[in-house]
Amino acid sequence: MFVGLGLYDCSDITLRGLRELANADVVYLETYTSLVPDLSIAELERLIGKKVKIVGRPDLEDRSGLELIEEARDRVVA
């Protein structure tokens, strides 16, 4: 599932988005295509109660997201 972070900071995330993030097995954060000016990763982690894994442009473009796909596949199979 993808959750939009809104336009400015953590207060722009919908309640449903926060609930989905809190219930997710893993949360990835990609920030190169959509900048959220005042986003605090620490605040986001506090709100959802888990660590956020930062995903960079090379993870998605150079490696085609293969590590993320493999991690997701491992979670489904387990």
First-to-last CA distance: 19 Å
Mean pLDDT: 83
Structural class: mainly alpha
Categorize the overall geometry: globular
Query: What series of H and E elements makes up the topology?
Result: HEHEHH
- Please tally the helical runs, counting DSSP H or I stretches of 4 or more residues: 4
Strand order of the largest sheet: 1-2
Q: How many whole angstroms does the radius of gyration measure? A: 13 Å
Uncertain runs with pLDDT below 50, 5 residues or more? none
The amount of beta strand, in percent, is 5-15%
Largest sheet: 2 strands, parallel
Topology, number of strands: 2
Helix content: 40-55%
Give the topology, please.
Blueprint: H1 15-23, E1 28-30, H2 41-48, E2 53-55, H3 57-62, H4 66-77
Parallel strand pairs: 1-2
Descriptive report:
The chain is mainly alpha-helical and 78 residues long. It contains four helices and two strands; from the N terminus they run H-E-H-E-H-H. It has helices spanning 15-23, 41-48, 57-62, 66-77; strands at 28-30, 53-55. The protein has a two-stranded parallel ribbon. The two termini are 19 Å apart. 6% of the residues are buried. The model has no long low-confidence stretch (mean pLDDT 83).
